[in-house]
Structure formats: C-alpha cells, structure tokens
Predict the 3D structure of the following.
Amino acid sequence: MVTDWAAHKRLQQEQLGSNAAQSPDTKLAERVARLAISDPLVTQPGPSSASTPPEPSAARVVLAETEQSIHAVISEAMNIRRPQIGRQEQSARVLESLGPRIKSAIALLRRADPKSEEPAVLWAKVDDVQRELAIVAESLKYHKDTPEKANVIEQMRELESELTAFTATLPDDKRPLYYDSAYTLDNPIQHLDPMAQIMILLGLICNVILGLSIGHTNFLIESITLLVKLAMSIHITPDAAGHSSYDAVQEEILRQLPTSLYTAMERLNLDGKTVLYAACPSCHHIHPPTLSITKARTWPTKCENEVVGVDGRSICGTALLVDTKTHPRPIRPFLSHSFLNYLARLLSTPEIEHEVDRACDEALCQHRALTSRVTAT
C-alpha cells in the first residue's frame, strides 16, 4: 500500500490550524502524541523518484514542532509575572491569622473542667495558652499600630484575663520547674583574640588581686593598648598618598581590646540577673512582676497582702504603682537577685553539683536509718 505523503502533511496542517486557539499545554500534549505516527511507507523507486528529493519523515516534523512548543511553554512560564503582595497586605493577612489562634486558646480554657481533669492536664493546657500568647506577642512586634493590631491586642487582653481567672482556680503547680541554664556554660571570651583575653585577665588581676583602683587599672589598660598599636605600626607601609592604616586583621584585634575595666568585666558577662519587685509602702510586702503581652513588666495596682488589724484579717489594698510617661512603675521598688539564676550558676560547676548531690544522699540515708529505728522500736 502506497501512502500519499502530501495528503498526510495537509491533514496535519489542518489539525494544527484547528488547534491554534487551544492552550499551550493541550497543543504540547497533542504534538507529543503525534510522535507515535509512523513514517510513511517508502514507495518503489521509479523514474520520477530519482529527480525528486525525499520528503522529510512525519516523526521528524512532529519532533521539531514539539521541541518548539516545549521552548514556548517554558518561556511563557518563566515570563509570567506573579502579583506582588505589598507590606500592608502582608501585615493584614498576618493579623487576620492571629485572631483564630487567640479564639481557639480561649475556647481551650473554657472547655477545661477543673473538677474532672487532673491538675497536670490542666497545667499543660495553661502552658499551651501561654505559648500561644508568646507567639502572638512576638508576631505583633513587627507591625505598625493599626486598627487591626489594636483589635488583636484587645483579644489578647481578653485571653490574659481568661488565663488569670482560670489559673486562680487551679491547685498549686507541683510539676518540675524547667529552667534554661545553657547560658551559664557559654564562654564569652572564647571568640576573642588571645591578646584581648590576656588584657581582660590582666585588668581583673590588677583590680581584684593587686587591689589597684579603677582609675589606675584603666591607665594600665590604655597604656597597653597604646603599646600594641605602636608594635603594629612597625609593619605598616604607607600607600601612594602617604596615608598609613591598619589592615583588617589588626583592626579586628584592636576592636576586641578592652578600653577600661568596665568593658573588661562586661566581656566576661558577670552581671547577674535581677528581679524588680514592687514593695508595699504600708506593709512592706513585695509583689513579683509578671510579663504582659508587650513583654513589659507589670505589677498589681494594689497590695494583695493580708494584714491583721483590730477588725481581724483584711486585704492591705495600698497603691503600689505610680504613673509615668511610659508605663506605671513601683512606688517603692525592691531589686533582688534572681534565685533561679543563682541556682543555675551554682549547679553549672560539676564539682559543686557533685558535693550537693553527695550531701543530699547522706541526709536521705540518715533519715531512712532514723525512720527504720523508730519503726523497730
């Protein structure tokens, strides 16, 4: 059977013309499908075939067209301009997503039943709500003041009041207290140059061990810094304009050198953590701060201590705070070291922790021995 190649080619052109309005993906699929069309059967050579050049095969034509379609589709996909979302719209979307999170946290507290659920389960729900509050508060830091942000803050205040009322009905939390003390194991000067480390150590020795005053110690530190600069200037070569400057390594070393005893102590990160309490001006009872949604410290507005008077027990109720330009502050502040920070630094030394454990073990052994004697008698 002899195939009419001209008729076959006309049929393909008609099909391509009818599918011109289709999408690039549809045309690409059809052109790839045409690769299955077999080449036309080769006719017997005759007198006319010797002078006429052979027609290209159908598979080659379809393959070339398919390749062009693939390049066209890829080029079109790469040139698509996706709409850019502005910052204001992004902020609105984020604020809109925070509302459902707050509502779900409020619903979690309202569904909790302190009468039927275990205290550990209830406190776990409190932890989940506090975690949600922290996430929302962190998200609000990067948004400008808008009505949407004010609405989210109002919802957070409602959640805080719900959380306060819920925790007031719970028994004392007897779960272990987890405190992140990883900062006590960090070496604050390990990234400094050895020259800077030696100067920091020298400043501490002069002030603490040798008993030099702060002024004398600062004079020694500044003198050593001057000597270091003079030693570095020996290898400095001036440029074409005659200006001399330190190289990048020398600049970094000079930047790390302490300029005074204060900066040397600051590099060691020896400052302890403190807690600012609000002391009652009347009964001297201290009230610890709590972190609000804005990460600012807040205290009760009035003293909540019970005092004994002529009429029996009553709440003190003395005002604790005074209004300032930024936020209320305690009338009588009481600054104290953080006990958790003290305990974390104490147990960060393995030798001290071993001694503490040994003392506790000995005390428990003596208690058990005494209990067994009492039981035997």
In short: Strands lie at 274-279, 286-287, 290-291, 297-298, 306-309, 312-315, 321-322, 329-330, 332-337. The longest strand covers residues 274-279. DSSP finds twelve helices and nine strands in the chain. The longest helix spans residues 350-376.
